[in-house]
Amino acid sequence: MDTINIGRIISEKRRAKGITQEELANYLGISKPAVSKWESGQSYPDILFLPVLASYFNISVDELIDYEPMMIKEDVRKLYHRLAEDFSKKPFETVYEECEGYLKKYFSCWYLQYRIGLLYLNHCALAGSPNRTQEILDRSVEIFRLVERSCEEVSLAKQAMQLKAYCYICQQKPVEAIEVLESLNEPIIQTESLLVKAYQLKGDKDKAIVYLQGSAVASLNILLGCSVDFFQLYADSPERMDKYYDIFIKLVDIFKVEQMSPGGLYSIYLTAAAIYVLQGRKEKALEVLEEYAALAKRNAGKDFEIRSNDIFDNLETYLKSIDAETIAPRSSEVIWRDIKNILAENPAFKPLEGEPRFQIIIRNLKEVWKQK
Question: Is 22 part of a structural domain of the chain?
């Protein structure tokens, strides 16, 4: 993190000017120990001395202070994951107040603002009450709107708009979400696919393969992400629902998605099972939930980081090349807690409570929680 470096600047400029601390102190009409404390970082000059010092060293006040309220991306990511971990273990409001402090301190660091908005979005369910959850979502919208309007980095501004729309969806505000998203609805040109061709022409096969795999995985994730919407929109057609469920599960198996990132698979099973309950097909719902529990058991104790597999063996290289985040946006503790509790707490599965197989699934998930 960047801090105020005025002491270092004073020391450097004084030495460059060839004067002692005592000579500078005499010029300013203060004691030599005061200058010494400035240069060692024990104290700062009074605000009235700033223009005098800047003029004396022939620099601007901004240069004298040498302070930019910014954090590099790597530090922002480390902070994000530390705060995500804190949300899983400490009182929500305690961590929230710390986040607000960072937002004030680094007001113009748009990447940090964006990430804390994302942090709120991913942890608002821990806020303690439905009303407080809505307030946190409102705060996220406020942050994303600020990033969208102020950030000069186009891609980050667009991501902020997309997440703002997602907040509206979480708040059951479809009109607002549509208004935001339709303004972003532009023809998609996949940069990765063009890079594949460019590197092929250049004769750099290794780079072409890296971007080819990255493009393929990105497309696969988009397709699998559509599964939930397919299930929900075809809930009134059992035959079509079965067809789409089989297709998506085959895709997961063919491309060995579980080896890369099992975290995204839980929502596929949960949504499908909820739709089967809605259709009155309890046996099918229980079959899918058993797959859900088996997935959790196979991955007990593992984190939720994205990894290469034997099909996409250059995925990690690709993610590093685009400076992408590979760690899950919530702490493993929170994710595993949701995996364990969601069946018992979700009213969609209430009709299954009397089923012995459902009780076994609940017990198995509790055992997985102990193993993780």
Answer: yes
Contacts of 275 (CB under 8 A, 6+ apart): 231, 232, 235, 241
Q: Range of 155's domain? A: 73-183
Please choose, from the candidates 5, 51, 62, 3, the residue with its C-alpha nearest in 3D space to the C-alpha of residue 28: 51
pTM to 2 decimal places: 0.76
| In-domain check, residue 158 | yes
Over residues 178-193, the pLDDT tens digits come to: 999 988 876 666 778 8
Q: Is residue 1 part of a domain?
A: no
**Tokens for 266?**
């839980």
- Are 54 and 91 in a shared domain? no
Q: What is the pLDDT of residues 75-116, one digit of tens each?
A: 999 999 999 999 999 999 999 999 999 998 888 899 999 999
CA 288 to chain centre: 29
Contacts of 200 (CB under 8 A, 6+ apart): 208
Say if residue 176 is in the same domain as residue 315.
Answer: no
Residue 56, classed as helix, strand or coil, is helix
196 and 337 fall within a common domain: yes
Do 362 and 349 touch, CB atoms closer than 8 A?
no
